[in-house]
């Protein structure tokens, strides 16, 4: 099980500062979609240069240009690129192709997918390396909003891909979330907005790694 920290900020300097604070209590540094929009793939290059032993995920949520755009991120050093599960099969298949070419990983995010069970099975067959359930930031109202039931549903049909869980994950709920057995636990605001980011990351990291 791995801890992925969603660096949901706009500036690369802020993302690097957060990583300095929480390192080494992070397995995957997620360059959030706002950061990718604002800084471009140079953010991938600079993050990988600063933390070469941490996996870097470019959260692009690709809807088109699966091979060509994923290739750009992989060439800059990304270990993982995300594709939106709502896109068509050919985009996912081409992104997987790019991942294989570079020896990297393709992650498919099921956010906004209506039938996550059917789509998880389809995406698994297309060769995705990790498939994630995700509670939208815009719908989180407080408390434990992690989509644990959705995680259980897709785990029942996935045959080869790893699974991840994201959305509303906080330190106080981590033991319950871990009990559902995701391969990757993604934490954004639960760490980014914490007063003690390092202490919170350490607590979650240790719970995940047992």
UniProtKB/TrEMBL annotation:
A GO molecular function held by the record: hexulose-6-phosphate synthase activity
EC primary class: lyase
Family: Belongs to the HPS/KGPDC family. HPS subfamily.
Pfam families in the cross-refs: OMPdecase (PF00215)
Keyword Lyase: yes
UniProt organism field: Enterocloster hominis
Pathway: One-carbon metabolism; formaldehyde assimilation via RuMP pathway; D-fructose 6-phosphate from D-ribulose 5-phosphate and formaldehyde: step 1/2
Protein name as it appears in the record: 3-hexulose-6-phosphate synthase
Keywords: Lyase
Ranges where the Orotidine 5'-phosphate decarboxylase domain occurs: 2-204
């Amino acid at each position: 099980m791995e801890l992925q920290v969603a660096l949901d900020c706009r500036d690369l300097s802020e993302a690097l500062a957060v990583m300095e604070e929480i390192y080494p209590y992070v397995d995957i540094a997620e360059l959030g979609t706002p950061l990718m929009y604002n800084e471009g793939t140079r953010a991938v290059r600079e993050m990988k240069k600063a933390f070469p032993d941490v996996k870097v995920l470019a959260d692009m949520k690709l809807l088109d240009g699966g091979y060509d755009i994923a290739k750009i991120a992989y060439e800059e050093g990304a270990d993982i690129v995300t594709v939106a599960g709502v896109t068509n099969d050919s985009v996912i298949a081409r992104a997987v192709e790019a991942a294989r070419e570079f020896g990297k990983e393709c992650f498919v995010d099921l956010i906004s997918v209506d039938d996550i069970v059917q789509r998880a099975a389809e995406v698994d067959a297309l060769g995705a390396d990790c498939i994630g359930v995700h509670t939208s930031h815009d719908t989180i109202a407080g408390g434990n909003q992690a989509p644990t039931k959705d995680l259980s549903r897709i785990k029942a049909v996935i045959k080869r891909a790893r699974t991840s869980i994201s959305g509303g994950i906080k330190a106080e709920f981590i033991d319950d979330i871990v009990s559902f057995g995701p391969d990757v636990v993604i934490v954004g605001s639960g760490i980014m907005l914490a007063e003690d980011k390092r202490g919170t990351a350490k607590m979650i990291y240790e719970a995940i790694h047992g």
